[in-house]
Structure formats: structure tokens, C-alpha cells
Amino acid sequence: MAARWIALGVLCVLGCSTAPQPGPVIELSQLMEWVIDPAADVVWDSVKTIATEEGTKEIAPRTQEEWDAVRNAAAVLAEAGSSLMSEGRARDHDRWMKAARRLIDAAQGALAAAQAKDAGALFAAGGRIYDACAACHRHYAPQLNAHAGTR
Length: 151
Description:
The chain is built from 5 helices and 2 strands, in the order H-H-E-E-H-H-H. The chain has 151 residues and is mainly alpha-helical. It has a single domain (27-150), classed as Up-down Bundle (Four Helix Bundle (Hemerythrin (Met), subunit A)). The chain has a two-stranded antiparallel ribbon with strand order 1-2. Helix 2 runs antiparallel to helix 3 and helix 4 runs antiparallel to helix 5 (119-140). The protein is globular, with a radius of gyration of 21 Å. It starts with a helix and ends in an 11-residue tail after the last helix.
């Protein structure tokens, strides 16, 4: 009988000693404005074509430092997507989690493209990031889609 009480006591101590998981550190609007949007801008601005009267100019990372900056921004986006899934952030669990997962997946595509130094794949991943953001905003922040065509 004593062995049962000891075992129960050990289970209680182990079960109760689990450290609580930290919640979000910053507000959702701050996460979007300070982390997600700047990181997405780095990815979106990294590969593009600019047409002028003088002709077209192709923009893409050229140096290791430029590729590293895009890689880092993509990693930040993936981690921020993970943060969107943290306790206390989900608006309506199922839809919110799927939207966050789409951002993570798209950001991981950008991360892989940056690591491979593949400008075409990076451009495509940037489109998937944009689509993930726009779809989420359509549901959770429709006022932001008024600016959707400006990127």
C-alpha cells in the first residue's frame, strides 16, 4: 500500500513540476507590424522586375549577404507563423491554425529557395506568402485588403 502512495506522490510531483508554457510576448498587431510585415517585405522586395522607359531591370539577390538577408527574413516569417499558433492567439482555432500553417509552409518555401539561391523559386514563394497573408486578412482583417494590390 505504501508503494502505491509513493508512486502516486511521484506522479503528482512530476505532473505538477511541468513549467507553464509562456504566452505571447507582444500583441498580435505588433507581431504583424514589427515582425511579419517587415520580414515579408524583404522576401517580396528581393526578386522583381522593374520596367522603365530605359528598359527592364531584374532584381534578385546577388551576394551571399543578400541571400542571407532573404533567408533570415523567411526564417523569421516561418517562426512568426508558428507564434501565431501559440496559446492565446487563435481567433477561431481551426481556421486560424490553417491560416498560420499556410504562412509557415510558404515561408519555408522561401527559406529553401534562398538557401538554394533560386530566384525563380523565391519569387514563387513570395507569391505564396502574399496569398497566405491576403487570405487570412480577408477573414480576420478585411480593412487591410484595401491595400492588397500595392505590393
